[in-house]
Specification:
Elements lengths: L8 E10 L2 E11 L4 E5 L6 H8 L7 E6 L2 E3 L4 H6 L2 E4 L11 H5 L9 H7 L4 H14 L16 H14 L4 E5 L7 H16 L3 E5 L3 H7 L2 E6 L2 E7 L5 H9 L8
Parallel strand pairs: 3-8, 3-9, 6-7, 7-8
Antiparallel strand pairs: 1-2, 1-4, 4-5, 9-10
Helix pairs in contact: 6-7
């Protein structure tokens, strides 16, 4: 059983090669309970490869993953979901033709008449709508109508639907890949507020973003990757954006926890 102070997620010496290209080399870090950790770096730094190993999209070449102090194998997305890791990628993986409840419950729809109801497609839409409505209100998501197909929602509202799905299914860790990319100022602020609320609901969050202003407004720590290797980890209240940029470009090497 995990003890007090043990990180919810610990990554030890994770590496991934694609032929002769070293995408991630010997990266170690941890994620604490109800913490927001940012992973930053230039294009090609290894950020996407790293989170895809953690979420089971890529199989690691070497290294270990620990969840609540116990070693786990994450070789598929199903493995990651089983231990409570959910990843929201930039494309959000929403079905445009479905409404908000349809997307939140996608693949796990409640039915009338048990298995027989599922077999004949007798969905309990009332339950889906009521539970989705309560969730949206609890998270203070700015979604105007749950009935509308998500194709008609704005970028920020679609992001809110994807994040709400993570919360509803009781995930312990949310990995968010560029959650404010291509959003305007107001919608970005709405999404950042939603991410903060996830922490308040007890989730631990890994966020990838190029926007340092957004990062500094919500995260607890920042990990910098460069050429597939970890440059350092800094507490957000003990560093500056200039320092982080220096780490990204290689002008400064620093290690704080």
């Amino acid at each position: 059983m995990a003890g007090i102070g043990i990180p919810i997620l610990e990554i030890k010496n994770l590496s991934k090669h694609f032929g002769g290209v070293v995408a991630v080399n010997n990266v170690s870090f941890d994620l604490k309970d109800a913490e927001i950790l940012a992973i930053v770096g230039d294009n090609g730094a290894g950020k996407s490869t790293l989170i895809k190993m953690i979420s089971g999209v890529y199989q690691k070449d070497s290294g270990e993953v620990f969840f609540k102090g116990e070693k786990v194998e994450v070789n598929t997305p199903a493995d990651a979901k089983k231990i409570g890791i959910e990843t929201v990628y930039q494309d959000l993986a929403l079905v445009d033709e479905l409404d908000v409840p349809g997307n939140i419950f996608l693949g796990r729809e409640p039915t009338h008449l048990g298995r027989f109801g599922k077999f004949i497609g007798l969905l309990n839409y009332k339950k889906m709508f009521n539970e989705s409505s309560e969730l949206v209100k609890r998270l203070k998501s700015n979604i105007p109508s749950l009935y509308s197909p998500v194709r008609y929602l704005s970028g920020g509202q679609r992001q809110a639907v994807a994040i709400s799905k993570v919360v509803f299914w009781g995930k312990k860790i949310a990995i968010l890949d560029e959650p404010t990319a291509a959003l305007g100022v107001k919608e970005s602020q709405n999404v950042l507020a939603l991410i903060k609320s996830l922490k308040e609901h007890g989730l631990s969050i890994i966020i990838i973003s190029h926007n340092l202003q957004h990062i500094f407004s919500i995260v607890d720590r920042i990990m910098v990757l460069r050429h597939g290797e970890k440059v350092g980890v800094v507490n957000v209240h003990e560093t500056t954006a200039e320092d982080v940029v220096s780490m990204i470009t290689g002008a400064k090497m620093i290690e704080k926890v």
